[in-house]
């Protein structure tokens, strides 16, 4: 039986941070489902860096159909979860269904990959206390407030938790996550 991976996201997620792991994990042979607050077409965004700007810019990105609503997710059916960034985590952290889903992955010590603003979700469920993580650098204080030790690196592995700063770090992030997956949830 092929191991299944869950991606949790919503509108205004960073396009590359959803689609790159989705395609890379499928390429490895995993089955991947995308879950969101509702089964609907999601509107992603593109965050890019422009000369002279103090922060990233945001433009409309790709759209993608969510396979499942959070209320339909059975975490027991999935070997791991991916948490993309963008602005989506800012409002998704308030979703009680999603918080239950994520907590179950941590309680079962299943692999979790988070990137950019994704760690706002794991902070919301109290799962960063005492852990080493990275995130989009502007979230360093948020990570510390959640009890984590922030490390400004392309990818940080703490047990089954693999975090990364943003889409430019995809190769390091996915290499690290795939090492954890191959050990904990190999493709059948």
The N- and C-terminal alpha carbons lie at a distance of 6 Å
Largest sheet: 7 strands, mixed
Which percent bin holds the helix content? 25-40%
Mean pLDDT: 97
Number of helices: 6
**Radius of gyration computed on alpha carbons:** 15 Å
Number of strands: 11
Which sequence of strands runs across the widest sheet?
A: 5-2-1-6-7-11-10
The run of helices and strands is EHEEEEEHHEHEHEEEH
Q: Can you tell me the residue ranges where pLDDT is under 50 for at least 5 consecutive residues?
A: none
Strand content: 25-35%
Quick structural gist:
It is built from six helices and eleven strands.
Description:
The mean pLDDT is about 95. Helices cover about 30% and strands about 25% of the residues. The termini are close together. With about 190 residues, it is of the alpha/beta class. About 45% of the residues are buried. It has a seven-stranded mixed β-sheet, sandwiched between helices. The protein is built from six helices and eleven strands. Belongs to the peptidase C56 family. It comes from Streptomyces chengmaiensis. This is DJ-1/PfpI family protein.
SSE arrangement:
Layout: E1 4-8, H1 15-27, E2 31-36, E3 41-48, E4 57-65, E5 68-69, E6 80-83, H2 88-92, H3 96-107, E7 112-115, H4 119-124, E8 132-133, H5 140-145, E9 149-150, E10 155-158, E11 161-164, H6 170-184
Parallel strand pairs: 1-2, 1-6, 2-5, 6-7, 7-11, 8-9
Antiparallel strand pairs: 3-4, 10-11
């Amino acid at each position: 039986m092929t191991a299944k991976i869950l991606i949790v996201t919503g509108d205004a997620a960073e396009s590359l941070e959803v689609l790159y792991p989705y395609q890379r994990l499928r390429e490895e042979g995993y089955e991947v489902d995308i879950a969101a607050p509702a089964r609907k077409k999601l509107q992603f965004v593109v965050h890019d860096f422009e000369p002279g700007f103090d922060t990233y810019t945001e433009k409309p990105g790709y759209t993608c159909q969510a396979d499942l609503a959070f209320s339909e997710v059975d975490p027991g059916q999935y070997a791991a979860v991916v948490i993309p960034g963008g602005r989506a985590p800012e409002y998704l952290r308030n979703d009680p269904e999603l918080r239950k889903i994520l907590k179950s992955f941590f309680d079962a010590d299943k692999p979790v990959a988070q990137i950019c603003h994704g760690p706002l979700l794991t902070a919301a469920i109290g799962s960063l206390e005492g852990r080493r993580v990275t995130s989009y650098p502007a979230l360093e204080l948020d990570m510390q407030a959640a009890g984590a030790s922030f490390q400004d690196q392309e990818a940080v592995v703490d047990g089954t938790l693999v975090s990364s700063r943003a889409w430019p770090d995809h190769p390091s992030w996915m290499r690290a996550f795939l090492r954890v997956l191959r050990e904990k949830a190999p493709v059948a």
